Amino acid sequence: MSVDLPLPAFISLAGERFDVAAFTAADLDAIVALEQRSHPHPWSRENFRSSAGHHCCVGLQQGDSWVAYAVLSFVVGEAELLLFVVDKDWQGKGIGSRFLEALTQAAQAKAQTMFLEVRASNEHAIALYEKAGFNQVGLRPGYYPAGKGSRREDALLYALELPSPEM
Fold it and tell me: 129, 144, 153, 158: which is the annotated catalytic residue?
């Protein structure tokens, strides 16, 4: 991870431990496979390889398995959550909320605001982000590609004001 964040070493949920770890080139097979299972238009291996040198690429592991991952970019007091994925087998169990909370708390060390965009149809992700305190601040019409014969999908832009880190 080229951007160091003060993340916890692990997250506990319902008696289970999830290790917080940066993902590297050695992890790309597993990360790309999870990405392909999670998105109709996934990032490529090259997108991840390029991000590893410039962004914060971090995830949750249970044993040898990746359960979730995120890619964050930091520029001039702003953080952008470029990707946030929780394996479908772990969705709805609270791990996404705990991971997002850890990311937003850690981002306070480098940013005052965190931004993200989400497909307008992704109701579960929208609910997660709004529960975490994100507010919709914009719309990008026709931003996301859609299936053949379908219209492109809108992106909803969200922002979260991050409190200053405690001194």
Answer: 129
pLDDT at residue 166 is higher than 70: no
Give the CA angle between residues 37, 8, 4 to the nearest 5°.
80
Using DSSP's 3-state secondary structure scheme, residue 149 falls into coil
Q: Whose structure tokens read 């999908």?
A: 153
Question: Residue 97: which of 66, 72, 134 has the closest Cα?
Answer: 134
| Domains of the chain from N-terminus onward | 10-161 (3.40.630.30)
123 is catalytic: no
Residue 129 bears catalytic tag:
yes
Distances (CA, A) of 82 to 37, 94, 154: 17, 21, 16
pTM: 0.92
From 35, 69, 80, 117, the catalytic residue: 117
Output the pLDDT for position 1: 42
% helix, strand, coil for the chain, step of 5: 30, 40, 35
For range 94-103, the mean pLDDT: 97
User: Average pLDDT, stretch 34-38?
Assistant: 95
